[in-house]
Amino acid sequence: MKIIQVNDLTRDFEYYKKAQGIKGSIKNLFKREKKIKHAVKGISFEIKEGEIIGFLGPNGAGKTTTLKMLSGILHPTSGSATVAGYIPWERKDEYKRMFAFVSGQKTQLWNDLPAIDTFYLNKCIYEIPDDEYNDILNELATLLDVKHLINIQVRRLSLGEKMKMQIIASLLHKPSILFLDEPTIGLDIISQQKIRSFIKNYAKKQKVTIILTSHYMKDIEDLCKKVIVINEGSVVYNGHLKDIQSMFHMKKIMNLVFSENIDFEQLKKYGSIIEQSEFKATIELDVKTYAQNTTKILTEFPVIDFTMEEPSVEKGILKLFERNAGNPNE
Amino acid sequence: MNDSFSIKRNKYWVSLSMGFVNSMEYRFDFLISLLSTTFPIIIQVFVWTAIYDASTKEVLYGHTFPQMMVYTVFAGAISMFIRTGVEQSINRDIHSGQLSNFLVKSIMYIPFRIMNSIGEKLSSIVVMILFSVIASIAMYVFIGFEMQVINIILFLPAIVLAFLLNFFIFFCISTLAFWITEASRFFYSITIIVMVASGGVFPIDIFGTLYVKVLKLMPFMYTTTFPIKVINGTLSSGEILNGFLVQIIWIVVFSFFATFLWKKGSKRFVAVGG
Amino acid sequence: MMKILKRMHWYLKLLFLFMKLSLQSQLEYRLNFLAGASVEIACLFIKLVYLILVSRTGESIGFLTPDMIMIFIGTYIFMTGMWMLFRGINSIPSIVLRGELDVLMTKPGSLQFLQTFGSFDLAKTFPNVIAGIVLIIIGWSNTTIAASFANITGFLFFIVCGIILTYSFSLIAALLVFWITSRNAVLTLYAALWDFNNMPMAIYPKTMQLIGTFIIPIFVIFNWSGLFILGQLDMFRIIYGAVIPIIVFVLSRMMWKRGIMRYYSANG
After folding, report:
1. What ipTM does this complex have?
2. Which residues in chain C are closer than 8 Å to A181, comparing Cβ atoms?
3. What number of other Cβ atoms are within 10 A of residue C48's Cβ?
């Protein structure tokens, strides 16, 4: 059953250009240049009930703007959308009780008070009956392992703990639709994993529809079967993750630091060298053979330090463009 | 030799122009805040008019009505002018850790701050001059107030010295932020109280003769009350020159104090790490 | 009917909860609390200087004796406390520019209620409210005005009207940020207009009094209660003083709705 339908959604923003220096500032007193940014350009998609969809794309692609329109925070410039039969930007109370919006960058927690106070506030706002409230609070706090922290001031918690509290605060009223905007941004690896597994389990138990945006591939890979890739306001791909996973994982990048001068010609056997200097090198390794190659490199060369990197999401999207250009289907 | 001098002049010039650009940044803010600074003056003109009208006496608080008008108009303008906001800048530098930049570079903090404050003032100087001209004409027309040319000329050094004195006083107050991290939150209240106490809103005579006697021993009069008296024509040239001397003495005292506190404070800053 | 009562209950429950949370939250940072209060006390100092000014001359201004003026200045200071109370309104300009209205927008219930009553600044309110009440009581008791039931009721009635007007005007001033994206310039202007009321409106020329009563009814906030007990209000003005708060409130609500329409988050 299709629960979210988006048709040709568009959103433009106006902004002013500021000039530099003294002359510019004086000019600005009288005249400013107005510019328009096309954040979302006519996107369309459908989501079925119970799916977990990933919105993938680089910063500024329009993911957050789209989510904001679906939560009713923004009016689209044109186009339409319905979520569970409601038009989001009409902001009906019944719709608001059905969904939750969790943002990695904006908090709803009162910073100087313990999280439990914000939870209680939400309880009153959503009119959650006492026993229901206690049950679900207990359950969520235990699952996320923060039960011992709910009485501590939010500002004393770590970023990961704060995010967990935010998630609890958003789930108290048992929303059936969840919008997660960059939920793991800025968190350490362990917190990221914990939150991912929580969302996975939670989604399995309750029948929630989730839209998750991120520019970390790992978030999407762990949680979503289907992805919508957005770049510069337009949908670049809408379908199963595994079909395009190869785009994002063709190469792994290895940064190397050596203790003495090496023969770069020998290093070239393993992959293409992106950068090199006296004691450093950055090499691109093929994903299929990188495990063996890294071991070989580490044994053959005097490496004193190294790091592994995923190629950026932007590169993967570029690849998608190239493929789309050659293959003019969807 | 020439080179190092022009480089030094450059970095102070840059800090002056930065102060100027900053104050232009928020254009509407700028225009509006300019407009709203005239409001208290307008209110006081009405208040005094009503009070003098209703009163049977000619002289209230040691001022006749025309004298009170002049005081009100110029006190407001002068208070605006001598306010440097240096306490905000210093507090920001200390708490953001930016101070380390200054301590490391070969730039002297106090002159830097002075130039920056002057730069920020440049935009308001034009306005102040305009305002004073308009106000003076209005006062001439409505209450027959005439300013002697000599007083106008003597006013210039008086106001410059008043600016410097106020700068150093507030510089000293700001150094509190080195020792008490929370001191900065009270700066605004301190500024207001100092302003009122030095006659920036009403003549200090309204507080009574005892207060005036005490205040004569302190520097605060010389930031606001003294320049007003200069332009008001209530002082003889001898008294004016005497006043300059007192201003200069206070400036020297406070600049020493400021440098001393600065040295002590920056040592502590380095030791404690801000 | 039940529905309306239930709604009222919801709003009231939240109102008290917000007050409690605001107070707790502010007391966490005791120093901040003191700092906020100290700023208001310093400003109080200036407001009181006007009073010193007038009372030291010992003379009346028109029909206003210094004690009567004390009542008016007390009302002014009290209302300033009320204005300071509404931190939810006063923070609208910065919240809009930082795009932080999003969080409340997704919650059920009136957004205007959640935002304007969602946080209170008690540190800045207390000094003004207490000082204001004290001045009103002292001033009134020193005059010959009877503390009759009619007088007290009328006085309090117009105080309530003043609070509603304060809420509405402050909201309108804060909302202008949707049309003039200048940081707090409007609030600075509003604060300057507010300061005109440090003294009773009787000291201003008749034209100004008319403008401040009928065109931008800001004088109504501070003067009506005092003028009522002095018997200076004719029937027309009494009714006007009761009706205008409703009109301005409705206007502010309309402006709120239009402002929200224009809202867009700062980070696009």
Report:
1. 0.84
2. none
3. 16
Q: C147 CB near a chain A CB, below 8 Å?
A: no
Spell out the domain ranges in chain C: 2-261
Helix B27-36 × helix B2-25 angle, to 10°: 80
pLDDT digits (tens, 9 = 90+) for B122-136: 777 777 788 778 888
Q: Which residue of C has its CA nearest to B187?
A: C39
Q: For B71-80, how does the pLDDT look when each residue is reduced to its tens digit (9 = 90+)?
A: 888 888 888 8
Chain centroid offset of residue A186 CA: 11
Q: Is the pLDDT of residue B121 over 80?
A: no
Total beta-carbon pairs less than 8 A apart between chain A and chain B: 15
Of C32, C49, C56, the CB nearest to B196: C49
Mean pLDDT of chain C: 89
Question: Which bin fits B45, alpha (ψ -120 to 50), beta or left (φ > 0)?
Answer: alpha
Give the neighbours of chain A: at least 3 Cβ pairs within 8 Å.
B, C
Give residue-wise pLDDT tens across range A149-194: 999 999 999 989 999 999 999 999 999 999 999 898 888 888 888 8
Task: Say whether C25 and A110 touch across the interface (CB within 8 A).
Answer: yes
Q: Which residue has the higher pLDDT, B103 or A289?
A: A289
What domains are defined for chain A? 2-247 (3.40.50.300), 250-309 (3.30.70)
- Which residues does chain A have within 8 Å of residue C107's beta carbon, measured at their own beta carbons? 96, 125-126
Q: How far is CA C53 from CA B75, C223, C268, in A?
A: 16, 20, 52
Triad C146, C149, C155: Cα angle to 5°: 80
Residues of chain B whose beta carbon is less than 8 angstroms from a beta carbon of chain C are: 26-29, 31-33, 35-36, 39-40, 43, 46-47, 49-51, 53-57, 60-61, 182, 185-186, 188-190, 192-193, 196, 201-202, 206-207
Amino acid letter, residue A110: W
Give the gap in angstroms from C-alpha A183 to the nearest C-alpha of chain C. 15
pLDDT for the residue numbered B244: 92
Q: A282-288: which pairs have CB atoms within 8 A and are 24 or more residues apart?
A: A282/A253, A282/A254, A282/A255, A282/A256, A283/A253, A283/A254, A283/A256, A284/A251, A284/A252, A284/A253, A285/A251, A285/A252, A285/A253, A285/A254, A286/A250, A286/A251, A286/A252, A287/A249, A287/A250, A287/A251, A287/A252
**B196-219 CB burial, b ≥16 within 10 A, e <16:** bbbbbbbbbbbbeeeebeebeeeb
DSSP conformational letter for A185 = T
Q: Bridge partners of A15?
A: A35
Both tokens assigned to C141:
């008791």
What's the full length of chain C, in residues? 268
Considering only residues 223 to 252 of chain A, which have any Cβ-Cβ distance to chain C shorter than 8 Å? none
- Which residue in chain C is spatially nearest to A76 when comparing CA positions? C264
Of the partner residues C21, C106, C268, the one whose CB lies closest to the CB of residue A71: C106
